[in-house]
Specification:
Chain B: GO terms for molecular function: L-aspartate oxidase activity; succinate dehydrogenase (quinone) activity. The complex is a heterodimer of chains A (413) and B (541). Chain A is α/β, with parallel strands linked by helices and 413 residues long. Helices cover 45% and strands 13% of the residues of chain A. Chain A has 18 helices and eleven strands. The model of chain A has no long low-confidence stretch (mean pLDDT 94). Chain B has two domains: 5-36 and 316-429, Succinate dehydrogenase/fumarate reductase flavoprotein, catalytic domain (Flavocytochrome C3, Chain A, domain 1); 74-314 and 432-497, FAD/NAD(P)-binding domain. In chain B, a hairpin with a 4-residue loop joins strand 10 and strand 11. The model of chain B has no long low-confidence stretch (mean pLDDT 92). Classes of the chains: A alpha/beta (413), B alpha/beta (541). The interface between A and B is medium-sized, with 21 and 17 residues.
Chain lengths: 413, 541
């Protein structure tokens, strides 16, 4: 049984855009260590086993190494704060309440890969986050603290805030690059990866906001300290966006590897109205559902993957008995259909057709043929898009079809 | 058992030949109210524990309803195809009909959902009439002043200004639709509306159709609504929950189709609650003059989605409800009877109160007589006399021309009003407070409007005779027009559902409110209606 972690959400550092308050709360030490021994940054992250918190769980050190190994010249660091999935609300909190934590992490990344431009890419619907970040960036620029960073990087360092397109698809890495290059945020095939050919065709390192927020703490306190924050084989601390049919929804910082049961019943106050637990949409609505069988799963990237699901962004949308799975799935697939950029026909038409079929079933007008058609779409659509949007939509439909077939049953047909 | 003077003895004390002298009163009106009105005293209110009015006083029985849990959950919405409209009006009384007609006039498509049938409401039971400052000796300002004073200055002046200000126009609108108001005697046809004086007013301002004004108005409005092709009327379809969108705005309602025993979803650009009051909750054990459907459904629905309430600890007890025979207890004897001159007499033959004082004062005075043993007892019922023989001896023609309902009621009571006085006792009549609204009926929740008795702030802590009929048309029409305007602006009602119910359940759990009461209650307790068993009974079709 573990309590809450207090690193990223430490109330002492939730000072908003106030550089002096951030420094006096212990901020800046991670960056100072990084500037002392830049060659140790990536090995430290590797030893700490920091993963990408935007959903992939990809080892952060690999991404940084790839960008660092590109030939010197103009390079970019992009902090991805597009956050637009249903049920995820962690990055907006970090940007608004701890902008300097995020900026310091991004500057350490700039030092590690010797980048001269750091861009904070933020969803325009989160006006408060943009406001806080603009203010915080201005504080850094005016403070002269950047001089030391520039000396180590060996070029001028510029920080800027760029509102994203506000589209769900705009959070995908290649779409981020497209948008920052001035085009509609269409994802594209990879390779080339952004670390090879990103903003202005230059090497670009793109990290999720929460990932970067972890970096100053790791540099300041060491890899061992960070590993010990986690439980079992998992390393570090994780923000969980808990929502749905729980008594106390909200943002919780817990050790990586905390049990699902504990998140819901200890921290989330249990199920609303004492109803039975039914399922969780993990990592937002694009993954395989976890059910009552999985309540014992430790919430870390590898353990959740071993149950054929994904931890994703750490969003946990909890469903109780008495909430219709099909209605929820219909809602989410409609979100994907609206979010599809439309450049890949299977995704454009597939999400639309799935949303149409789900709406018919959820509103009692579905037939057995509709249910079969939905099942067939799940077989032919995966892997047919340039990005993973269509795969996410299929995963949630397929998973709910397998786990709750009775809810799809259409009486009288 | 409180002692009372036996009926025969009281009859003997009733003086027949002279107008009785008003007994001097040692108490001021305020002291009388404080000591005897049902709203006063420690049992009359509790503090609400949840919701936007947490900490505010509320009648305990009403608190159980507004703090109740929802009847349905998300799973009940599964497999239902929603219907869509611009404006959904919940309630088929005068306020609902006026709202529907004015929303139509503003170009909106309208659905009216009625728990019983359209017109089947308290409106048809309004006997006395409607106030509107149309006389040359009257003014909007006087109407405003009377209403504010009558409501003990607790009303919202902005609402009262609209009430008084719209009065003449509402009357013109009603006449235009076909309402046949009584004309002054001796005047040329169409020349002068007959005006009567109401208790607590400074001018003759009551317009009436005999003594069934509300029935006459509802006759006209029901025809207008039913003949309008842009209005879909869903009878026997109570609203059991509102729907909200992801931003907490009101986006429709869940209805229960009593006939087919299924839920219906109605998506709407705006919802107008016109569900009336709470009389059938029988607060503090009082009989009620109210219609069968008056169970505070709208208050519960509005409060749960986050609308603020006001003065929900204040109710009007009509002074002259039937006390005997017991099976008609609570039935109303119109204030018109007193406004044309009938006296209230206690068991000693004393006239103890000015009959045209505000209703709360007359009520408290009657309750004092009964509490102090000066009431009249008959077959276990207690009350005071409403001296109709004294009145009709002078003007027997009143019974056929103006007091038709009284004649019917007396017949049902088995008495001849020209010979026997009626035994009366206060009856729960009107909910003074309700959902807080602005001048257009808008609540604190976007997309949700209220009109009529469900809304609060128009009458303060006491309502004048004739202002209820005016209220429902003034604010019904305003809410209808405003809702139609809002429904015209495209709102991104993406996902609609019961998000507000989820928030509400969290709040109930945190506050430890686990009484287990469910609302809306839909029917009085003696109606023995239980939603789930009703649905289950329909399973066989």
């Amino acid at each position: 049984m573990a309590g809450l972690n207090s690193v990223l959400l430490d109330p002492a550092i939730g000072v908003g855009a106030n550089l002096a308050a951030w420094t006096s709360a212990g901020g800046g030490e991670g960056l100072a260590r990084a500037l002392d021994r830049p060659q140790d940054i990536i090995p430290t992250l590797r030893a700490a086993d920091l993963r990408g918190m935007g959903g992939a769980g990809f080892p952060t050190w690999r991404k940084w190494t790839a960008a660092a190994e590109m030939a010197d010249g103009e390079k970019y660091v992009v902090c991805n704060g597009n956050e637009d999935e249903p049920g995820t609300f962690k990055d907006r909190y970090l940007l608004r309440r701890t902008p300097h934590q995020v900026i310091e992490g991004a500057l350490i990344a700039a030092v590690a890969i010797r980048a001269g431009t750091v861009i904070f890419y933020i969803n325009p619907r989160q006006a408060e986050s943009i406001e806080a970040m603009r203010h915080a960036v201005a504080e850094w620029t005016d403070s002269g603290l950047l001089t030391e960073v520039e000396r180590v990087v060996g070029r001028n360092v510029r920080l800027s805030v760029a509102p994203s397109s506000g589209r769900y698809i705009g959070g995908e890495e290649s779409a981020v690059v497209r948008w920052l290059n001035g085009s509609f945020p269409f994802p594209r095939r990879k390779p080339p990866f952004p670390f090879e050919k990103g903003v202005n065709d230059r090497p670009t390192l793109i990290n999720n906001t929460e990932t970067l927020a972890n970096v100053p703490h790791i540099l300041k306190n060491g890899a061992d300290w960070y590993r010990n924050l986690g439980i079992g084989g998992a390393s570090g601390t994780k923000l969980f966006s808990l929502s749905g049919d729980v008594l106390e929804p909200g943002l919780y910082e817990l050790p990586m590897g905390t049990g699902l049961q504990e998140l819901i019943f200890t921290h989330g106050g249990g199920m609303l109205g004492g109803r039975a637990f039914k399922a969780v949409f993990t990592g937002g609505p694009s993954n395989t559902l976890l059910t009552a069988r999985d309540l014992d799963v430790p919430l870390d990237f590898d353990s959740v993957r071993s149950r054929q699901s994904r931890l994703g962004t750490g969003a946990m949308i909890v469903i109780s008995e008495g909430t219709s799975i099909v209605r929820k799935v219909a809602e989410y697939v409609e979100f994907f259909a609206n979010g599809s950029c439309g450049q890949c026909p299977p995704c454009k038409c597939g999400t639309f057709q799935m949303a149409r079929l789900l709406d018919r079933i959820a509103t009692g007008r579905g037939t057995e043929a509709d249910r079969r058609a939905l099942g067939h779409l799940c077989l032919i659509l995966p892997g047919s898009g340039r990005c993973a949007l269509i795969d996410g939509a299929v995963t949630v439909v397929q998973s709910s079809l397998q786990t709750f077939p009775e809810e799809y049953a259409t009486p009288g047909v | 058992m409180i002692s009372a003077i036996a009926f025969e003895q009281a009859m003997a004390s009733l003086v027949r030949d002279a107008d009785p002298v008003l007994r001097p009163d040692p108490l001021s009106r305020e002291e009388l109210l404080e000591a005897y009105h049902p709203d006063a005293g420690p049992e009359a209110r509790v503090s609400l524990r949840v919701g936007p009015n947490r900490g505010d006083p509320c009648h305990p029985a009403l608190a159980r309803v507004v703090e109740g849990d929802a009847l349905i959950g998300d799973v009940d919405l599964a497999a239902i195809a929603p219907m869509s409209t611009d404006v959904l009006v919940v309630g088929g009384g005068g306020a609902g009909a006026a709202a529907a007609l004015s929303a139509r006039a503003a170009g909106a498509e309208v659905v009216v959902a009625a728990k019983l049938r359209i017109g089947d409401s308290n409106t048809v039971m309004a006997e006395g009439g409607i106030q509107a400052a149309v006389g040359e000796d009257d003014s909007l300002q006087r109407h405003f002043d009377d209403t504010m004073r009558g409501g003990h200055h607790a009303a919202d002046p902005a609402l009262v200004a609209r009430l008084a200000g719209d009065g003449p126009d509402v009357v013109r609108w009603l006449i235009g639709l076909g309402v046949d108001f009584d004309l002054a005697e001796g005047a040329a046809p169409g020349a002068r509306l007959m005006r009567k004086r109401a208790g607590g007013t400074t001018a003759a301002r009551i317009l009436s159709h005999r003594d069934f004004t509300g029935l006459e108005i509802m006759r006209v409005l029901r025809e207008a609504v039913e003949l309008d092709r842009g209005v879909t009327v869903l009878n026997r379809s109570p609203a059991i929950e509102l729907l909200s969108d992801e931003y907490g705005r009101c986006a429709g309602a869940v209805l229960y189709d009593l006939e087919h025993r299924v839920f219906k979803l109605v998506r709407a650009g705006a919802v107008i609650l016109a569900t009336g009051g709470a009389g059938r909750l029988h607060l503090t054990g009082f009989a009620t003059s109210n219609h069968y459907g008056a169970t505070a459904d709208g208050l519960a629905l509005a409060y749960r989605i986050g609308a603020r309430l006001r003065e929900v600890d204040s109710f009007q007890y009509h002074p002259t409800g039937v006390a005997h025979p017991p099976h008609l207890a609570g039935g109303l004897i119109s204030e018109a009877v007193r406004s044309v001159g009938a006296r209230l007499i206690n068991g000693l033959g004393e006239r103890f109160i000015d009959e045209l004082a505000p209703r709360d004062v007359v009520t408290a005075a009657i309750l004092r007589e009964c509490a102090q043993g000066r009431g009249v007892g008959r077959d276990g019922s207690v009350g005071v006399f409403l001296d109709t023989p004294g009145l009709l001896k002078e003007r027997p023609q009143l019974l056929d021309k103006q007091l038709v309902s009284l004649k019917h009621l007396a017949h049902r009571c088995g008495v001849d009003p020209c010979v026997d006085p009626l035994l009366v006792y206060p009856t729960l009549h009107y909910q003074n407070g309700g959902v807080a609204i602005d001048g257009n009926g808008a609540t604190s929740v976007e997309g949700l409007y209220c009109a009529g008795e469900v809304a609060g702030g128009v009458h303060g802590r006491n309502r004048l005779m004739g202002n209820a009929l005016l209220d429902i048309f003034v604010f019904g029409r305003r809410a209808g027009a405003a809702a139609a305007g809002q429904a015209g602006t495209p709102l991104a009602h993406g996902r609609i559902g019961l998000g507000h119910v989820q928030r509400w359940r969290r709040e109930l759990t945190r506050a430890g409110v686990t009484g287990g009461s469910l609302s809306p209650v839909l029917y009085p307790a003696y109606g023995n209606f239980e939603l789930r068993s009703h649905m289950a009974a329909g399973g066989k079709g």
